[in-house]
C-alpha cells in the first residue's frame, strides 16, 4: 500500500550542516518527541509541537557554527543527552538545555564527523581520527584521504569497539585501536554511514552507506573481512546521499530505510523481500536534505518523517490525514483551528512587514549620513563540483540560503555547457574574446523567483586546464555577489578507481630528478582530480585512474626523486609529460624524462574510440534527416512508402533530437581526441605530422576502424 504523507513546515532556523538534527526519545509509546537542531549560527534549538505550533524548550546563544549533533547516554538507556561539535570543541546539554560538558579536544582542525557510544567519543577532522573514553585520549589514526563520516558498531552486540571511517577515496576503513584492520571498497565516495535497522541488524555488524554520486549499499563488517549484502545504483540520476535513518513509517512492523539527498529528494525503501530494499515512495523538496529522522512529532499517534534542509527549514511528512472524515461538528472545529492559525499568521506577517520597513528606512538614513560605512550582507553558499562517471561531465551545484537572482559563469579554458533537465533558469551566452584575455566561456543563468538551488553541467577537454568561476548574486538588498572558483585540471576527465587491467598495452613515462615526495605529489594533485592534497604517509604511493569519456586507464607510482606513469592512451602520457616538465621548470628542478611507447596501445585506443565515433556520426546523420523527413510526411500525409530505417527515424525523432541536444560538440570532441592521438604518436618519434591532420579529418567521416588504423600505421 502506498503511504499517504502530508507535508508540514514547522520552523526555520539558520543554515544547517549535515547530520545536525535529531529527535529526542519519547516519554511514552506514540507520544510526541522533541526536536533538537543545531545551525551554522551556532544556535542549538530544542522545540516541541503543540496544536500545530512550534513551542521552544530551549535555545542557546549564537556562536561558532555547529558541524555535527549526536545523542548519547549510558548504554542500554534512553539516549537523551545532546552533544554538539563546535570547532574543535564538544559540548554536552541535557534535554532541558543545561550545559554539563565542555570538552576542548586536541584536534588542530574543526571537527567534521562525530559518533557517540556510551562513554566513547569518536571524532574526525579532515584526515585525523581520535577516540576518547570519558574525555581521555585513547586512539589515533591518520587516514589516507578525507574522512566524511564515522560510526562504531554497537559494543553490546559485537563485544568490542570497531570504528568505521567513510573516506573520500571510495573506501571504508575499519579500525582496531589505532590500527587499520582492513579496507572495504565501495562504488563511490561514501558521505554518510548508518547502522542497519538503527542497531546494526541481528549481528550488530551491518552498516548502510550512501555515496556522493547517489549510490546506496549495505555491508557486513565482520572481525576479519567485509561481506557486501546489497547495493543500489543511481539509475534515476538523483543527487548524492547526505543522511540515512531507519524507521517503520508504513506501520508494517519492519523498519524502512529513509534516505535524504542533496537534490531535495526524500526516499523510503521497503524490505519486501529479505534481500534488497525496494523504493516505495519518494518526495521532492526544493533544497538539499541535511538531516532526516523518523518519529512522532506533530501529533500523538501519528508517525512522520522529519527533514532538516540546508536553509534551516524543519519539514515533516506526516501520516496524519489532512482531511478528516467525520460529522459537520468536527469539520467546523477543524475550520476554526484553521481560521485561528491563518489569523495568527496574518498578524505575524504584518508585524514582519512593518519591521522590514523600519529597518529599510534605518539603513537608508545611515547610508546617506557623513559617517556611513558600507555593509555587505553575508550569505552562505553550499557548492559541489564533481565529475560524473556516466557522461564524463562535471556537475556544478550551487545552493544559497536565500533566492538566487542570477549566476554568471566564466572560464579561461574551452568548456561545453550541457543541458540539465532539472534546471529552470534561462541561460544567455555572451561573445568572448579568447585571444588577449583567455576568456572562452561567458554565460548568465537568470533564475526564477524562489530558486535557491541551481545545477549546471560542463564538459572539459583534457590537456586544456585553467579556472571556472561562478559569480553568484542572490535576491537581497543591497546587491552583493560572491565569486567561487573551480579548478579544471589537465587530466580533468580521469576518476580514481580501485584497480586497473594490467593486460592492456601500456606506455610508460619515467621521471627522475632532485625533487621531494611532497613536490611530486603536489604536481600529481595539480594534474589529476580526486587526489588528496595532503602528502601520503610512507615513502611511495600508487594511484589508479580511469578516463570517464574513453575508458582508458592510468597508473601513477611515485616516491622521492622518481615517478612512473603508465597509460594505454599515449595522449594521457603526452599531457603528463608537458605539464610535469612545466611544473618542474617553474621550481627550477632539472628532470630526466624517459618514455617507453607501445605501438599496440595506439590501435587499442582507436578501437575504444571508434564505436563511439560511429554512433555519434550515425546520430548526427539521423538528426540532419529529420527536417526533410517531416516535410515529406506533411506533403504526402502517409510515410508507408519510406524504407523502415527512415520510418524509425521519424518515430524516434524527439528522442534523437533530445539526445543530440544533450551532447553538443560530442563528435567534435571525438575528432579532437583522434587528432591528438595522431599528433602525440609521432611527437614521441620526433616527427611533426600537423600537415597531415586535414587529410585525417577528411577521411574520418565514414571511415571504418581498419581504415583508420591503417592511416595511423602508414603516416
TrEMBL record:
Domain BBS7 GAE, residue spans: 377-486
BP terms from Gene Ontology: intracellular protein localization; non-motile cilium assembly
Positions of the BBS7 helical hairpin domain: 599-712
Keywords noted in UniProt: Coiled coil
Database matches in SUPFAM superfamilies: WD40 repeat-like
Domain BBS7 beta-propeller, first and last residues per copy: 21-319
PANTHER family in alphabetical order: BARDET-BIEDL SYNDROME 7 PROTEIN
Protein name: BBS7 protein
Taxonomic lineage: Eukaryota, Metazoa, Chordata, Craniata, Vertebrata
Amino acid at each position: 500500500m502506498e503511504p499517504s504523507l502530508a507535508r508540514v513546515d514547522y520552523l526555520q532556523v539558520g543554515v544547517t550542516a549535515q547530520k545536525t538534527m535529531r529527535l529526542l526519545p519519547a516519554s511514552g509509546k506514540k507520544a510526541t518527541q522533541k526536536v533538537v537542531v543545531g545551525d551554522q549560527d551556532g544556535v542549538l534549538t530544542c522545540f516541541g509541537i503543540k496544536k500545530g505550533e512550534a513551542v521552544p524548550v530551549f535555545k542557546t546563544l549564537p556562536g561558532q557554527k555547529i558541524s555535527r549533533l549526536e545523542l548519547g547516554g549510558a548504554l542500554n538507556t534512553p539516549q537523551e543527552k545532546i552533544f554538539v561539535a563546535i570547532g574543535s570543541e564538544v559540548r554536552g546539554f541535557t534535554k532541558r538545555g543545561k550545559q554539563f560538558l565542555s570538552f576542548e579536544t586536541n584536534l588542530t582542525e574543526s571537527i567534521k564527523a562525530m559518533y557517540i557510544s556510551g562513554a566513547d567519543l569518536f571524532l574526525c577532522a579532515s584526515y585525523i581520527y581520535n577516540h576518547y573514553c570519558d574525555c581521555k585520549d585513547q586512539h589515533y589514526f591518520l587516514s589516507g584521504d578525507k574522512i566524511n563520516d564515522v560510526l562504531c558498531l554497537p559494543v553490546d552486540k559485537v563485544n568490542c569497539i570497531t570504528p568505521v571511517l567513510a573516506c573520500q577515496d571510495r573506501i571504508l576503513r575499519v579500525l582496531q585501536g589505532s590500527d587499520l584492520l582492513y579496507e572495504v571498497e565501495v562504488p563511490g565516495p561514501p558521505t554518510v554511514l548508518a547502522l542497519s535497522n538503527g542497531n546494526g541488524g541481528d549481528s550488530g555488524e551491518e552498516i548502510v552507506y550512501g555515496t556522493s554520486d547517489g549510490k546506496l549499499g549495505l555491508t557486513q563488517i565482520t572481525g576479519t573481512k567485509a561481506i557486501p549484502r546489497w547495493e543500489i545504483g543511481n539509475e534515476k540520476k538523483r543527487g548524492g546521499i547526505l543522511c540515512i535513518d531507519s524507521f517503520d513509517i508504513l506501520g508494517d512492523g519492519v523498519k524502512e530505510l529513509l534516505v535524504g539527498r542533496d537534490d531535495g529528494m526524500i526516499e523510503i525503501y521497503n524490505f519486501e523481500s529479505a534481500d534488497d530494499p525496494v523504493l516505495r515512495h519518494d518526495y521532492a523538496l526544493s533544497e538539499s536534505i541535511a538531516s532526516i529522522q523518523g518519529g512522532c512529532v506533530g501529533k500523538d499517534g501519528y508517525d512522520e518523517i522529519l527533514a532538516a534542509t540546508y536553509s534551516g527549514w524543519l519539514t515533516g511528512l506526516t501520516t496524519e490525514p489532512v482531511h478528516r472524515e467525520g460529522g459537520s461538528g468536527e469539520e467546523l472545529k477543524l475550520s476554526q483551528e484553521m481560521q485561528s492559525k491563518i489569523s495568527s499568521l496574518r498578524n505575524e506577517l504584518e508585524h514582519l512587514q512593518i519591521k522590514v520597513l523600519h529597518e529599510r528606512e534605518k539603513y537608508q538614513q545611515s547610508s546617506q549620513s557623513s559617517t556611513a560605512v558600507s555593509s555587505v550582507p553575508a550569505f552562505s553558499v553550499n557548492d559541489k563540483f564533481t565529475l560524473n562517471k556516466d557522461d564524463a561531465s562535471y556537475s556544478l551545484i550551487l545552493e544559497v540560503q536565500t533566492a538566487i537572482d542570477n549566476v554568471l559563469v566564466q572560464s579561461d579554458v574551452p568548456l561545453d555547457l550541457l543541458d540539465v533537465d532539472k534546471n529552470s533558469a534561462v541561460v544567455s551566452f555572451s561573445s568572448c574574446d579568447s585571444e588577449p584575455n583567455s576568456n572562452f566561456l561567458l554565460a548568465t543563468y537568470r533564475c526564477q523567483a524562489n530558486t535557491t538551488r541551481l545545477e549546471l553541467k560542463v564538459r572539459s577537454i583534457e590537456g586544456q586546464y585553467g579556472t571556472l568561476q561562478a559569480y553568484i548574486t542572490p535576491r537581497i538588498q543591497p546587491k552583493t555577489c560572491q565569486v567561487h572558483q573551480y579548478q579544471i585540471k589537465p587530466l580533468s576527465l580521469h576518476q580514481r578507481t580501485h584497480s586497473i587491467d594490467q593486460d592492456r598495452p601500456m606506455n610508460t613515462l619515467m621521471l627522475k630528478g632532485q625533487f621531494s615526495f611532497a613536490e611530486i605529489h603536489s604536481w600529481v594533485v595539480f594534474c589529476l582530480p580526486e587526489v588528496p592534497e595532503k602528502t601520503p604517509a610512507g615513502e611511495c604511493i600508487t594511484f589508479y585512474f580511469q578516463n570517464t569519456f574513453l575508458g582508458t586507464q592510468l597508473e601513477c607510482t611515485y616516491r622521492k626523486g622518481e615517478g612512473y606513469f603508465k597509460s594505454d592512451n599515449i595522449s594521457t602520457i603526452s599531457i603528463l609529460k608537458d605539464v610535469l616538465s612545466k611544473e618542474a621548470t617553474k621550481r627550477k628542478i632539472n628532470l630526466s624524462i624517459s618514455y617507453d611507447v607501445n605501438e599496440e596501445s595506439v590501435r587499442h585506443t582507436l578501437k575504444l574510440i571508434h564505436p563511439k565515433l560511429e554512433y555519434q556520426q550515425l546520430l548526427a546523420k539521423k538528426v540532419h534527416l529529420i527536417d526533410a523527413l517531416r516535410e515529406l510526411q506533411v506533403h504526402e500525409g502517409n510515410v508507408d512508402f519510406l524504407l523502415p530505417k527512415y520510418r524509425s527515424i521519424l518515430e524516434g525523432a524527439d528522442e534523437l533530437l533530445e539526445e543530440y541536444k544533450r551532447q553538443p560538440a560530442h563528435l567534435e570532441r571525438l575528432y579532437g581526441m583522434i587528432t591528438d592521438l595522431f599528433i602525440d604518436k609521432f611527437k614521441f618519434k620526433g616527427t611533426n605530422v600537423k600537415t597531415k591532420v586535414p587529410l585525417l579529418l577528411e577521411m574520418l567521416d565514414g571511415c571504418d576502424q581498419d581504415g583508420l588504423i591503417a592511416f595511423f600505421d602508414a603516416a
